[in-house]
Amino acid sequence: MIKVVAISLENEMDLVLAHKRSMKVAEKLGLTTSTQTTFATAVSEIARTVIEHTDNGILEIGLEQNKQRYALMATVVYDRDIRFTNDDAGFYYAQKLVPEFDLSDNGTGNVITMKIGLPRSLRLDPAKISTLKRDFESEQPLNAYDEIKQRNATLSRIAVEKEEELRQSKLIDDQKTEFISIASHELKTPMTVLKAYTQMARATKEPVSDKMQELLSKIDLQSNKLMTLIHQLLDISKIENGNLQYNMQPVMLNAFILGQISVMKHILPHYEFFTELTDDAKVTIDEVRMEQVFSNLLGNAAKYSDKNTSITIKTILNDNGEVTVSIIDQGRGMDKETMSSIFDKFYRSKDVVKSHSGLGMGLYITTKIITDHKGKLWVESTEGAGSTFHFTIPCKVV
């Protein structure tokens, strides 16, 4: 059927719509007034009978083509467990009004089909039918009820479309997460082997030229960078699947921070580190995960700052039982647009994509770790004047 009109049959108000739409379709096709009335009456009688038994019937009116002939057609679909017989007056009467009347089961519900053959003199063709469909698509509501019904239908359609968009988005995201997980695991094994062979070569007692030692050092450095990326990808996969696990232990915060700075001084020898630590406090953390936090934040502070600048680590005890840790750099700073998106997964500012390497995963992972420690992470920054990253975690003053 070439559908022209569709109406949900929910209550008696829909009988008015069913009758008027049926009349309108027949009128626009050029049928006589008596034929219009006959078809509309048959449709209304079936609609009335269905509404008496259920509120989820569907009426569709349109055209059916059989070779060169067309027929005006109406179908009403309703629950398959509802049975009509000739004892139902509307069901019986409608059969007498139209030349073709059929009751069938489409597998999910009952379908009543009514047809009236159209004379060739109407000279219907695809162009006229397209015009007819457009007329009804743009037709104004028949009454206030029809207007509300159309608006509800539009809202329902938009909701369904949005739900489908979300479903598709989640499906794509799940597939991407699965790919990241598989790819990371596949890359991890050969990279571990490559790094092991590199370290063996560097530690050999066999004579090795200075040039070869330099090359081995570069291979080892790049291997470390790639292993870091692989571990970040694995963490992304765990976060998406809700499998990021923690081994929470009580730790003295100041000693932990000083230990992290000691390590980072060797990794970032061209930067000067300063500390402004408040009274010591006991925090319950996963040390390995919190090491990631400091590695990401201190690494970024150096990455976006010139060499021989300073990085300051500051702590403040808050009255609400939290400690605020701040990492202050003297780097390039950020604009408001960057600050609003910097914690998003895979986000990288346009002005650093070409000048700085990375995949935009570090701060996303850091945010998740801090959140799972019942804290929060945020940034303050001014373009050209550096950035300060703050995060809080619960603590107990010693």
Question: What are the SSEs and their pairings?
Answer:
Elements (H helix, E strand, L loop, with lengths): L1 E8 L3 H17 L3 H21 L3 E10 L2 E11 L9 H9 L2 E6 L3 E9 L8 H12 L6 H60 L6 H32 L7 E4 H15 L4 E5 L4 E5 L1 H17 L6 E8 L4 E7 L7 H6 L20 H11 L4 E5 L5 E8 L1 E2 L1
Parallel strand pairs: 7-9
Antiparallel strand pairs: 1-2, 2-3, 3-5, 4-5, 6-8, 8-13, 9-10, 10-12, 11-12
Helix pairs in contact: 1-2, 2-3, 5-6, 6-10, 7-8, 8-10
What does this entry look like structurally?
This protein is an alpha+beta fold and 398 residues long. It has three domains: 2-139, Heat Shock Protein 90, CATH 3.30.565.10; 168-241, Helix Hairpins, CATH 1.10.287; 249-397, Heat Shock Protein 90 (2-Layer Sandwich), CATH 3.30.565. Helix content is 50%, strand content 22%. The protein is built from ten helices and 13 strands. The strands form three sheets. A five-stranded antiparallel sheet has the order 1-2-3-5-4. It has a five-stranded mixed sheet with strand order 7-9-10-12-11. A three-stranded antiparallel sheet has the order 6-8-13. The model has no long low-confidence stretch (mean pLDDT 87).
